[in-house]
Amino acid sequence: MATETHITSNQTLNTKDSSFDVSDEVYYLLLFVTNAIIANILSLIGILGSILNVIILSHHKMQDTTNVVLLAISVCDLIYSITQISFNFNQFAKSLINLYIFQWAAVTNLLIFDRINYFAIIVSIHLVTLVSIERMVAVCFPFLVSRVFTLYRMKCIIISIVCSNIVLRIPFYFKFEMYFDEYKNVTMPFLRYGDLFFQNISFFNTYSRISALFLYSILPFFVIFICTFATIFHISITSKTNKALSSMEAIAKRKKEMKSVKIVLIICVLIMFLVLIPLFVQQVLFVFALVQISQKLSLITFWIVNILVQLNSSFNFVIYVTGSPKFKRTLMKMFYSKRLLKVQS
Q1: Is the per-residue pLDDT at 6 higher than 50?
Q2: In this model, does residue 240 exceed pLDDT 70?
Q3: Fewest CB atoms within 10 A around its CB: which of 26, 82, 153, 182?
């Protein structure tokens, strides 16, 4: 998730003297380690894992209400990982090699790829929230879930989430404008805040705070937490209730499945909170300017949050394989069975 608060320009806004800063040596070391090594490795893993997720979840045997949302999340993760490689390369290359081609790449990245990147991650967060609600209803109200969450309704909800986020991001499309200026006797593109932004700066600030804090941080955080807690609590109560019937094969199988669901939910929530909590703290600090820090330290915090978000996107495939027997069976049938047939023939 790329930052939307800096300008790729040789004419930036004046910043206040900061109380917290880092040395140039630490800054460039973290720049290389985070953007050139860790982030790109995670992005490549995320691309491979998301492609496998899309292939498997698109299989006709995997079409149910939960998997259709997981498919949409995998598409968002794939888009995020691809655009994140562009962002990582741009951050590393432009900071160390300020050439004409990299300046064009920087402007293109902020105008196009940065917006797609941010859009993909916020849609993914809202889809994870939807999965948490659907799983809570499926576990706590098993006789109601098939009537409330049909496959058609889930697809409509997914489309509504995508469209609503597009509408919510419209004001930010007018935040920057491109202009050309001389730099070392070469005409290069730069970005600056647009006139519409300056004319409505109070609206932009208020809108940014509301959307960043409530729609993208606080609301998903508490919904996911409440739904997951209710789901895990209900699974625990049900397991204790059916303890006396554990000798029955059907009940034993059901308990094993519920235990697997419980473990997967805990892992997913821990990973999601690992992303949402730093994101929430970051939004509070920077949106309300509670702490005055340097631009270098500000960028470092964004890099760390980006890595946490990429970590969440990169290991969804591992979670699906270990936590979903149906996903694992489909994976084996689609790849291992074909390979075995070729060897036998």
Answers
A1: no
A2: no
A3: 182
Quote the CA–CA distance of 264 and 317 in Å, as a whole number: 12
R_g of the chain, CA atoms, integer Å: 23
Q: Is the pLDDT of residue 91 over 80?
A: no
Cβ contacts of residue 289 below 8 Å, gap of 6+?
Answer: none
First CA to last CA across the chain, in angstroms?
47
Task: Give ∠ CA 308-121-49 in degrees, rounded to 5.
Answer: 70
| Confidence (pLDDT) at 34 | 78
Give per-residue pLDDT as tens, 29-69: 877 787 778 888 888 999 999 999 999 988 877 888 888 99
* Alpha carbon 108 to its chain's center: 21
The stretch 243-256 carries a mean pLDDT of: 54
> Minimal CA–CA distance to 295: which of 48, 83, 13?
13
Q: How confident is the model at residue 263 (pLDDT cuts 50, 70, 90)?
A: low
Burial category of 143 from C-beta neighbours within 10 Å (exposed 0-12, middle 13-18, buried 19 and up): exposed
Whether 155 has a pLDDT exceeding 90, the answer reads: yes
Per-residue pLDDT at 13:
37
One-letter amino acid for residue 178 of the chain: M
In three-state secondary structure terms, 315 is coil
Which of 89, 94, 115 is closest to 104 using CA atoms?
A: 94
The count of other CB atoms within 10 Å of the CB of residue 179 is 11
Tokens matching residue 330: 């489909």
DSSP state of 14: P
d(CA 101, CA 94): 9
**Residue 71 corresponds to which amino acid?**
L
CA 310/CA 315 separation, integer angstroms: 9
